[in-house]
Amino acid sequence: MKILVTGGAGYIGSVVAEELLKAGEDVVVVDSLTLGHRAAVPREAAFEQGDLRDRVFLDRVFAAHKPDAVMHFAANSLVGESVADPLRYFRNNVGGGLTLFEAMVAHGTLKLILSSTANLFATPRRIPIAEDEPIVPGSPYGETKHILERVLAWLDATCGLRYAALRYFNAAGATETRGEDHRPETHLIPIVLQVALGKRDHVQIYGDDYPTRDGTCVRDYIHVVDLAQAHILALRALERGSCVYNLGNGRGFTVREVIEAARRVAGHPIPAVVGPRRPGDPPELVAASDKIARELGWTPRYPDLETIIQTAWEWHRRHPDGYRD
Ligand code: UFG
């Protein structure tokens, strides 16, 4: 198959592109390079630079490459930033998604995997969080993904577009060649590893007065390669119909436990300072991934937090300045 990967120069998109190529698929990456890195795009993939809201650009890409399916990663994805600038998130994420779906329907490409998010569950009633948990977006960012999921449900019913929405919890880890390089970096694991590399003095813990075992927030970290495998399995299962899955390892770790695991992996003291809460952070997010395990046979290759951090550490040590672009 030929897969069009939007956001394929970003962290998760580039790893999925790498894994698709390893699985023998053809890949076309579309990325504006606003946030992504050209160096993250696999050499074997075709590359088209442009904005998803540009329909003329998309028409040219679809006509030239005739993809069989799309994996849609391109988006702004920071909860706090979306609270500060909601309209940018609605314009980019909803506008880009709608223009992409229009182009797909117009060109007859009717298979899509959507990057969705745990930010659909701001106030979960039950943990681990299953797919039937009522959706309460925690931010404008989460709302943009909810809107796209709703649009896709209607496109399935009216246009025969088959989709899988994969709601990731906390993506982490790296492959030998691809890892996490956000500018500026806001995510816990890369920040902690930057301290271990001597690039920062300390990590700030955003609040230690949450109702959790040590007062810091609990998250479910999932290796980016395990996410990639879920995309490939979901794509192959689309023949059976559209579906929605929550994706995590089903185990939560506090911020302090993540820092402690990174200390063991990196052999560095990694000083931590407690600061105020970050607005919008739910106390605990842990996924129930039984549905994707049962229905698609998904089993994580890296279920262990320390191994996930180890893969990230190896990448950061080899690429202390990230992709350098
Ligand atoms: N944290 C710190 N200090 C830091 C950075 C993070 O204490 O310097 C804490 C956060 O408060 C949070 C945890 O570490 O409790 C994880 O934070 P991240 O920023 O790494 O990840 P988030 O859980 O905030 O966000 C991730 C994705 C989002 C997605 C969200 C869904 O990055 O795209 O999960 O819950 F929306």
Task: Give a quick rundown of the structure.
The protein has 325 residues and is α/β, with parallel strands linked by helices. The chain contains ten helices and 14 strands.
- Rough shape? globular
Beta fraction of the residues? 15-25%
Q: Which architecture of the largest domain per CATH?
A: 3-Layer(aba) Sandwich
Unreliably modeled segments:
none
Strand order of the largest sheet: 3-2-1-4-5-6-11
Find the CATH superfamily of the largest domain. Answer: NAD(P)-binding Rossmann-like Domain
Count of the domains: 2
Tally the helices: what do you get? 10
Task: Give the fraction of residues assigned to helices.
Answer: 25-40%
Number of strands: 14
Report, as a whole number of angstroms, the end-to-end distance. Answer: 31 Å
Which hetero ligands occur in this complex?
uridine-5'-diphosphate-4-deoxy-4-fluoro-alpha-D-galactose
What is the CATH C-level name of the largest domain? Answer: Alpha Beta
Give the ordered list of helices and strands.
EHEEHEHHEHEEHEEEHEEHEEHH
- Structural class determined from secondary elements: alpha/beta
Average pLDDT for all residues:
97
CATH topology of the largest domain: Rossmann fold
C-alpha-based Rg, rounded: 19 Å
Major sheet details: 7 strands, parallel
